[in-house]
Amino acid sequence: MRAFRLVAWQKPAELREVPVPEPGPGEVLIRIGGAGACHSDLHIMEEPGPEDGTGLPLTLGHENAGWVEATGPGASGVAVGDPVIVYGPWGCGVCANCRQGQDNYCLETNGVGGGLAEYDGGMADCLLVPSTRFLIPLGDLAPRDAAPLSDAGLTSYHAVKRSLHLLGPGSTAVVIGAGGLGQMAIQILRALSAATTVIAVDTAADKLETAKRMGADEALTSDGETVERIRDMTRGQGAELVLDMVGVDPTLRMAAQVARVLGDLTLVGLGGGALPVNFLSPPHECSVTAPYWGSLTELMEVVTLARQNKIELLVEHFPLDRAAEAYRLLHDGRIKGRAVITPQT
User: Fold this and answer.
1) What is the homologous superfamily of the domain 2-151+294-342 according to CATH?
2) Confidence class of residue 302 from pLDDT cuts 50, 70 and 90?
3) Beta-carbon neighbour count of residue 13 at 10 Å?
4) How high is the pLDDT of residue 52?
5) Rounded mean pLDDT of 253-269?
6) pLDDT-derived band of residue 117, with 50, 70 and 90 as boundaries?
7) Dist. CA 150–CA 117, nearest whole Å
8) Which DSSP string do the residues of 84-126 spell out, in sequence order?
9) In angstroms, what CA-CA distances link 200 with 30, 177, 188?
10) What pLDDT score was predicted for residue 110?
11) Where are the chain's structural domains?
């Protein structure tokens, strides 16, 4: 089968031919309908990695959906042909966090799944999944469109849900970065919270237009006046929730300046920036967190929202032989929502 594989650190991934995996006891083989291209993949491709090449080759793709192709001995709960989405963090299944469905915080594996470390991902014709418990039925959702729900949707959902207690009538939420994750966060804020005002911030005019269409009340171009405008909109008090979907130094400075006393500042983006921290920054008792993905049950909730048409996936499809092109466009900021690789086309 074909697979888009990282074969050397700090080198572009390549399309290679590899054997089709045979599912062993408890395992499931998924025929991939869609595999999302994520900024996390760019970080993996660009990092130095171990000098001895440990961890390579690696098939990319940690946002995956498709159909059950085959099951190994003892694998139960799914049938060949079932459309499913794959929960990305693959935990040990026995630690306290995994037993609560929080494989993203597994105490043994750190929640690393296919396409991120030792396991091959789904940017291939097929994906081997270690357990049926990582599969969630898609119902009438198309795998090629639903794949980003497993990360862009789930990560945004978890980041919003943990702060719902702050988002009552009259409250404000700020979403910095209106790309794939930011667009999902805006819709989830509208679907779950009573926030009166949702403010989107980005440098790209087209992404801000999309943010307005998806429910943002205000769409601000990021410049030297953005902080003052947000503080004016919040009567000088700042926002109850600030979601930084970018995570570089300038966006984190902005987040610290527009957050509210006793609010939440949630860092989602992997830009590698540092938050300025001193007695006055962030504001007093403003909680700062960096969540990682979400739980199994939360992904089930995300799928339910999508099936109810309460969240919309803005997706650009690319066949597997154009995966490298998709990543170039993603690197250059030219993907409007989420790029999805579709091996079956």
Assistant:
1) Medium-chain alcohol dehydrogenases, catalytic domain (3.90.180.10)
2) very high
3) 23
4) 65
5) 98
6) confident
7) 17
8) EEE-S----SSSTTGGGT-GGG-TTTTT--TTTSSS--SSBSE
9) 37, 7, 13
10) 86
11) 2-151+294-342, 155-289
